[in-house]
Amino acid sequence: MKPSKGKKRPRPTAIRERQGFTLMELVVALAVIALLAGVTVPMLTRETDEARIDRAKAEVEAIGMALRTFQSTLGSYPDMDATGSTGSLWVLFSGPSIPTSNPWSSSTGFWTWMSGGGGDLLDHHLFENAPGGQTANRYATSSWQGPYLDPSTLDPWGRPYVVNVVAGWSSSTEKYRRLWVLSAGPDGAFQTSADAGLGDPVGGDDIGFLVQQR
Fold first, then answer.
1. Is beta strand 91-93 parallel, antiparallel or unpaired with respect to 119-121?
2. Distant-in-sequence, close-in-space partners of 192: CB < 8 Å, separation ≥ 6
3. Which of 57-61, 124-128, 136-140, 165-169 has the lowest mean pLDDT?
4. Which of 206, 193, 180 is nearest to 109 (CA)?
Protein backbone atom coordinates (compact mmCIF):
# COMPACT_ATOMS: atom_id res chain seq x y z
CA MET A 1 0.00 0.00 0.00
CA LYS A 2 1.35 3.34 -1.00
CA PRO A 3 1.81 5.87 1.74
CA SER A 4 -0.82 8.64 1.66
CA LYS A 5 0.25 11.86 0.22
CA GLY A 6 0.19 14.59 2.87
CA LYS A 7 0.93 18.27 2.71
CA LYS A 8 4.51 19.11 2.12
CA ARG A 9 6.33 20.36 5.14
CA PRO A 10 6.84 24.08 4.70
CA ARG A 11 10.27 25.25 3.90
CA PRO A 12 12.04 27.26 6.61
CA THR A 13 11.60 30.44 4.60
CA ALA A 14 7.83 29.87 4.43
CA ILE A 15 7.71 29.47 8.21
CA ARG A 16 9.57 32.73 8.58
CA GLU A 17 7.17 34.52 6.24
CA ARG A 18 4.16 33.41 8.28
CA GLN A 19 5.72 34.58 11.52
CA GLY A 20 5.45 38.24 10.47
CA PHE A 21 8.07 40.99 10.23
CA THR A 22 11.60 40.40 11.24
CA LEU A 23 13.24 42.84 13.59
CA MET A 24 15.03 44.47 10.67
CA GLU A 25 11.78 44.91 8.76
CA LEU A 26 10.14 46.50 11.81
CA VAL A 27 13.04 48.90 12.17
CA VAL A 28 12.77 49.89 8.51
CA ALA A 29 8.98 50.33 8.74
CA LEU A 30 9.27 52.51 11.84
CA ALA A 31 11.95 54.60 10.15
CA VAL A 32 9.68 55.19 7.16
CA ILE A 33 6.76 56.17 9.44
CA ALA A 34 8.98 58.59 11.36
CA LEU A 35 10.21 60.11 8.11
CA LEU A 36 6.68 60.59 6.81
CA ALA A 37 5.59 62.11 10.12
CA GLY A 38 8.52 64.52 10.00
CA VAL A 39 7.34 65.74 6.61
CA THR A 40 3.57 65.64 7.19
CA VAL A 41 3.32 67.37 10.60
CA PRO A 42 5.15 70.57 9.55
CA MET A 43 3.11 70.60 6.34
CA LEU A 44 -0.17 70.36 8.26
CA THR A 45 1.02 73.04 10.70
CA ARG A 46 1.93 75.32 7.81
CA GLU A 47 -1.48 74.77 6.19
CA THR A 48 -3.20 75.54 9.51
CA ASP A 49 -1.21 78.77 9.88
CA GLU A 50 -2.08 79.78 6.32
CA ALA A 51 -5.78 79.10 6.97
CA ARG A 52 -5.66 81.33 10.07
CA ILE A 53 -3.97 84.12 8.16
CA ASP A 54 -6.56 83.85 5.36
CA ARG A 55 -9.36 84.01 7.93
CA ALA A 56 -7.83 87.09 9.58
CA LYS A 57 -7.51 88.82 6.20
CA ALA A 58 -11.18 88.17 5.46
CA GLU A 59 -12.29 89.39 8.89
CA VAL A 60 -10.31 92.64 8.90
CA GLU A 61 -11.77 93.40 5.48
CA ALA A 62 -15.32 92.65 6.68
CA ILE A 63 -14.86 94.99 9.66
CA GLY A 64 -13.33 97.65 7.42
CA MET A 65 -16.20 97.52 4.94
CA ALA A 66 -18.72 97.77 7.80
CA LEU A 67 -16.91 100.89 9.05
CA ARG A 68 -17.12 102.44 5.59
CA THR A 69 -20.86 101.77 5.50
CA PHE A 70 -21.22 103.29 8.98
CA GLN A 71 -19.41 106.40 7.77
CA SER A 72 -21.55 106.66 4.66
CA THR A 73 -24.78 106.70 6.69
CA LEU A 74 -23.67 108.85 9.65
CA GLY A 75 -21.12 111.07 7.96
CA SER A 76 -18.37 110.09 10.42
CA TYR A 77 -16.59 107.06 11.76
CA PRO A 78 -17.37 105.86 15.31
CA ASP A 79 -16.30 108.69 17.63
CA MET A 80 -18.78 108.78 20.52
CA ASP A 81 -18.07 107.64 24.08
CA ALA A 82 -20.52 106.56 26.78
CA THR A 83 -21.22 110.17 27.80
CA GLY A 84 -22.20 111.19 24.29
CA SER A 85 -19.00 113.19 23.76
CA THR A 86 -17.45 113.02 20.31
CA GLY A 87 -13.77 113.21 19.46
CA SER A 88 -12.72 111.26 22.55
CA LEU A 89 -12.77 107.70 21.22
CA TRP A 90 -9.36 106.42 20.17
CA VAL A 91 -9.58 102.69 19.63
CA LEU A 92 -12.16 99.95 19.18
CA PHE A 93 -11.66 96.32 20.16
CA SER A 94 -13.44 93.30 18.68
CA GLY A 95 -14.86 90.50 20.79
CA PRO A 96 -17.54 90.16 23.46
CA SER A 97 -15.78 92.07 26.24
CA ILE A 98 -12.95 94.49 26.88
CA PRO A 99 -9.82 92.70 28.13
CA THR A 100 -8.80 93.42 31.70
CA SER A 101 -5.09 93.10 30.84
CA ASN A 102 -2.95 93.55 27.75
CA PRO A 103 -3.82 90.61 25.45
CA TRP A 104 -0.75 91.08 23.26
CA SER A 105 2.78 89.82 23.78
CA SER A 106 4.29 93.31 24.03
CA SER A 107 3.23 96.82 25.03
CA THR A 108 1.38 98.80 22.40
CA GLY A 109 -0.16 102.22 21.92
CA PHE A 110 -3.52 100.59 21.32
CA TRP A 111 -3.55 99.13 24.82
CA THR A 112 -2.33 102.42 26.29
CA TRP A 113 -5.35 104.15 24.74
CA MET A 114 -7.68 101.44 26.00
CA SER A 115 -6.36 101.44 29.56
CA GLY A 116 -6.48 105.24 29.56
CA GLY A 117 -10.22 105.25 28.92
CA GLY A 118 -10.11 105.99 25.20
CA GLY A 119 -11.40 102.64 23.99
CA ASP A 120 -14.65 100.79 23.48
CA LEU A 121 -16.02 97.60 21.98
CA LEU A 122 -16.53 97.54 18.24
CA ASP A 123 -19.96 95.95 18.71
CA HIS A 124 -21.22 98.96 20.68
CA HIS A 125 -21.04 100.97 17.45
CA LEU A 126 -21.48 98.54 14.57
CA PHE A 127 -23.76 95.85 16.00
CA GLU A 128 -25.81 97.97 18.41
CA ASN A 129 -26.24 101.70 18.86
CA ALA A 130 -24.85 101.89 22.38
CA PRO A 131 -21.52 103.73 22.67
CA GLY A 132 -19.76 102.59 25.83
CA GLY A 133 -22.53 100.05 26.30
CA GLN A 134 -25.00 102.85 27.08
CA THR A 135 -28.15 103.54 25.07
CA ALA A 136 -28.86 106.85 26.81
CA ASN A 137 -26.30 108.63 24.65
CA ARG A 138 -26.23 107.24 21.16
CA TYR A 139 -26.00 108.16 17.52
CA ALA A 140 -29.10 109.72 15.96
CA THR A 141 -31.46 106.84 15.28
CA SER A 142 -32.47 108.43 11.98
CA SER A 143 -28.87 108.05 10.80
CA TRP A 144 -27.70 104.86 12.48
CA GLN A 145 -28.92 102.11 10.16
CA GLY A 146 -27.23 99.08 11.68
CA PRO A 147 -26.42 96.46 12.54
CA TYR A 148 -23.54 96.98 10.16
CA LEU A 149 -21.79 93.80 11.27
CA ASP A 150 -22.60 90.57 13.10
CA PRO A 151 -21.20 90.35 16.64
CA SER A 152 -17.45 90.53 16.20
CA THR A 153 -15.03 87.80 17.17
CA LEU A 154 -11.44 87.57 18.30
CA ASP A 155 -8.79 86.93 15.70
CA PRO A 156 -7.69 83.33 14.92
CA TRP A 157 -5.05 83.52 17.67
CA GLY A 158 -7.57 84.54 20.33
CA ARG A 159 -6.77 88.25 20.51
CA PRO A 160 -8.92 91.29 19.64
CA TYR A 161 -8.84 93.05 16.31
CA VAL A 162 -8.25 96.77 16.81
CA VAL A 163 -9.45 99.86 14.95
CA ASN A 164 -7.58 103.13 15.51
CA VAL A 165 -10.73 105.25 15.14
CA VAL A 166 -8.80 108.33 16.27
CA ALA A 167 -7.72 108.51 12.62
CA GLY A 168 -11.35 109.06 11.69
CA TRP A 169 -11.71 112.37 13.54
CA SER A 170 -8.19 113.69 14.24
CA SER A 171 -7.04 116.76 12.32
CA SER A 172 -3.33 116.12 12.94
CA THR A 173 -1.23 116.63 9.85
CA GLU A 174 1.47 114.22 11.04
CA LYS A 175 -0.20 111.44 12.99
CA TYR A 176 -3.39 109.39 12.69
CA ARG A 177 -3.51 109.71 8.92
CA ARG A 178 -4.42 106.07 8.30
CA LEU A 179 -7.47 104.33 9.72
CA TRP A 180 -6.62 100.65 10.14
CA VAL A 181 -8.35 97.44 11.15
CA LEU A 182 -5.53 95.29 12.53
CA SER A 183 -4.68 91.87 13.91
CA ALA A 184 -1.33 91.40 15.65
CA GLY A 185 -0.91 88.20 13.64
CA PRO A 186 0.70 84.91 14.69
CA ASP A 187 3.35 86.42 16.98
CA GLY A 188 0.83 88.45 18.99
CA ALA A 189 2.89 91.64 18.90
CA PHE A 190 1.97 94.77 16.95
CA GLN A 191 4.69 96.06 14.65
CA THR A 192 2.32 98.57 13.04
CA SER A 193 2.54 102.05 14.55
CA ALA A 194 -0.52 103.18 16.46
CA ASP A 195 0.33 106.74 15.35
CA ALA A 196 -0.44 105.69 11.75
CA GLY A 197 1.38 108.40 9.83
CA LEU A 198 1.33 108.42 6.03
CA GLY A 199 4.65 106.60 5.94
CA ASP A 200 3.61 103.90 8.42
CA PRO A 201 2.78 100.61 6.68
CA VAL A 202 1.47 97.39 8.19
CA GLY A 203 4.52 96.01 9.98
CA GLY A 204 5.90 92.55 10.76
CA ASP A 205 3.35 89.77 10.55
CA ASP A 206 0.45 92.10 11.41
CA ILE A 207 -2.62 91.70 9.23
CA GLY A 208 -4.41 94.91 8.29
CA PHE A 209 -7.07 96.51 6.17
CA LEU A 210 -6.81 100.21 5.32
CA VAL A 211 -10.23 101.79 5.80
CA GLN A 212 -9.27 105.39 5.06
CA GLN A 213 -6.23 107.53 4.39
CA ARG A 214 -6.36 111.31 4.51
1. parallel
2. 180, 182, 200, 201, 202, 203, 204, 206, 208
3. 136-140
4. 193
